[in-house]
């Protein structure tokens, strides 16, 4: 039940490509999957921010919270 | 909204035969209307039967409070939360919402890896034996939805890894029918048992259950 997919060419700098390749190794996923995951998360975060929610990271031990500022 | 429909088969328990059905990769207004007009009514009658049969309230299905319209409205159009439904005989027989980007595996051999996490999965009331539908109308809905989650996991590059928190009535199904690993009660999730499926368990499940 795979939906139809469209192809695009993506131009990345060396640094961006290096990060993408590092993430591929770390996550054991291919480049397409990493970028699709990134798009999903980005859309989700944007939707929550538009609603007025905040994106926070919490330090596991101290429970200190840091807000992530999205541009 | 583009909906991909895949042919599947369910088992009609009363007639003892396999019947044609469809797996949709969406929850549309049709499914929500079925839930509102048909599922809710049957669920209320089922709760009445449980009550009259003296079944304690703590054993009533906890999903009775789920509002699929609200859940779907919140998540609709979000790529992060694909939805699925099963149609048979013009009626919605099951629905599922999954989360693809935000949860990670807990089993040691795959700890930290991505997985498809099943947020909500529910069978139509008339297919549920625990609601005293005897016999239940169709069998196979839960397995097909789990199969769909595994296939999505494979498409996403997660190799069939899936996870979920199970309502108590379904623990046995996930452990024994699906062959998932029970990681025990999760204190951060209302004490519900957390189940996870490895790549190998996914292969075993598919091998056992056939294919779409």
UniProtKB/TrEMBL annotation, chain A:
Organism this protein belongs to: Methylomonas methanica
Top-level taxonomic group: Bacteria
Taxon lineage: Bacteria, Pseudomonadati, Pseudomonadota, Gammaproteobacteria, Methylococcales
Stated name of the protein: Transcriptional regulator
UniProtKB/TrEMBL annotation, chain B:
SUPFAM superfamilies in the cross-refs: Acyl-CoA N-acyltransferases (Nat) (SSF55729)
Name of the featured protein: N-acetyltransferase domain-containing protein
Organism: Methylomonas methanica
Classification of source organism: Bacteria, Pseudomonadati, Pseudomonadota, Gammaproteobacteria, Methylococcales
């Amino acid at each position: 039940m795979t939906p139809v997919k469209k192809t695009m060419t993506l131009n990345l700098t060396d640094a961006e490509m290096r990060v993408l390749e590092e993430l591929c190794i770390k996550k054991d996923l291919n480049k397409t999957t990493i970028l699709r995951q990134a798009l999903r998360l980005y859309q989700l975060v944007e939707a929550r921010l538009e609603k007025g929610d905040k994106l926070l990271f919490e330090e596991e031990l101290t429970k200190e919270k840091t807000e992530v500022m999205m541009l | 909204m583009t909906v991909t429909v895949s042919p599947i088969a369910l088992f009609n328990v009363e007639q003892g035969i396999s019947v044609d059905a469809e797996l949709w990769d969406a929850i549309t207004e049709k499914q929500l209307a079925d839930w509102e007009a048909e599922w809710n009514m049957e669920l209320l009658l089922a709760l009445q039967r449980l009550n009259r049969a003296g079944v304690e309230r703590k054993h009533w299905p906890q999903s009775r409070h789920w509002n699929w319209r609200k859940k779907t409205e919140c998540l609709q159009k979000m790529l992060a939360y694909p939805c699925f439904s099963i149609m048979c005989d013009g009626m919605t027989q099951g629905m599922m919402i999954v989360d693809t980007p935000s949860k990670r595996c807990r089993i040691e051999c795959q700890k930290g890896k991505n997985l498809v996490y099943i947020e909500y999965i529910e069978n139509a009331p008339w297919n549920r034996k625990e609601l005293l539908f005897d016999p239940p109308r169709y069998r196979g809905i839960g397995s097909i939805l789990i199969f769909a989650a595994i296939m999505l996991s494979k498409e996403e590059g997660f190799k069939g890894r899936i996870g979920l928190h199970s309502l108590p009535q379904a623990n046995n199904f996930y452990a024994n029918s699906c062959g998932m690993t029970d990681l025990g009660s999760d204190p951060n999730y209302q004490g519900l048992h957390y189940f996870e499926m490895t790549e190998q368990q996914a292969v075993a499940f598919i091998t056992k259950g056939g294919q779409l």
